């Protein structure tokens, strides 16, 4: 075999190995993002023109959240939030509109206490999606229903759904079921029935 042919074959082999390694790394990056963000990965992909752009957005979110001063709640804080949630939940039967609005506010207060910035809703949802990707869609759905309620366009069933959505994120932010107790337990059985999933 003459030397130029060997050189061409070696260069081609190195190029094939390089492309295969690049494809492997891209696949690995995609798999990691899909595992980390779950349904939020698909949602972001649907919003962007390309997979590359969507994945860049998700990586940007993760980097942003890494620089936030997030902290877990102290047990005392957690207990206070759970008590406040139970009060809001008990109000749902008599005043679902106000109770749903207060549930939305309470979720925002928990986020602020944990260290999440509380500005623009879409930014808050994006930030929450990094550490709570399985429930961020609940936050978006609940918030959308709360906005409909504020415009007088939501019925009681819509408000019940919004409340359930807020509860999903609230529980996840507090880690209530694993670290404390289930906020759905309350002395008011009628209220519990009204806002059941």
Give an overview of the whole structure:
It contains 10 helices and no strands. By secondary structure, the chain is mainly α. It folds into 2 domains: 64 residues; 120 residues, no CATH class. Helix 1 crosses helix 2, helix 6 packs antiparallel against helix 7 and helix 7 packs antiparallel against helix 8.
List keywords for this structure.
197 residues, mainly alpha, 2 domains, elongated
Structure, briefly:
The protein has about 200 residues and is mainly alpha-helical. The protein has helices at about 5-35, 40-45, 50-65, 75-90, 95-115, 120-130, 135-150, 155-175, 175-180, 190-195.
Oligomer: single chain
The termini sit apart by 74 Å
Q: How many E-type strands?
A: 0
- What is the N-to-C succession of helices and strands? HHHHHHHHHH
**Low-pLDDT runs:** 176-194
Structural class: mainly alpha
Mean pLDDT: 83
Radius of gyration: 23 Å
The largest sheet, given as strand count, sense and whether it forms a barrel, is:
none
- Sheet-strand content, in percent, reads under 5%
Number of separate helices: 10
**How many domains, as an integer?**
2
Write the layout of secondary structure elements.
Layout: H1 3-37, H2 39-47, H3 51-66, H4 75-91, H5 96-114, H6 121-131, H7 136-150, H8 156-174, H9 176-179, H10 189-194
Helix pairs in contact: 1-2, 2-3, 3-6, 4-5, 5-7, 5-8, 6-7, 7-8
């Amino acid at each position: 075999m003459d030397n130029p042919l060997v050189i061409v074959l070696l260069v081609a082999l190195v190029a094939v190995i390089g492309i295969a390694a690049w494809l492997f790394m891209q696949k690995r990056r995609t798999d990691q993002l899909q595992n980390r963000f779950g349904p939020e990965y698909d949602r972001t992909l649907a919003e962007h023109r390309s997979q590359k752009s969507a994945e860049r957005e998700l990586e940007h979110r993760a980097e942003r959240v890494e620089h936030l001063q997030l902290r877990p709640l102290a047990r005392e804080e957690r207990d206070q939030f759970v008590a406040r949630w139970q009060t809001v939940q008990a109000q749902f039967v008599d005043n679902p509109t106000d109770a749903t609005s207060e549930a939305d506010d309470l979720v925002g207060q928990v986020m602020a206490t944990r260290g999440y910035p509380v500005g623009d809703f879409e930014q808050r949802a994006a930030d929450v999606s990094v550490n709570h990707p399985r429930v961020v869609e609940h936050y978006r759905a609940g918030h959308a229903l709360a906005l409909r309620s504020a415009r007088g366009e939501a019925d009681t069933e819509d408000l019940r759904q919004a409340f359930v959505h807020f509860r999903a994120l609230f529980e996840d932010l507090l880690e209530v079921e694993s670290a404390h107790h289930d906020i759905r337990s309350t002395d008011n059985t009628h209220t519990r029935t009204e806002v059941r999933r």
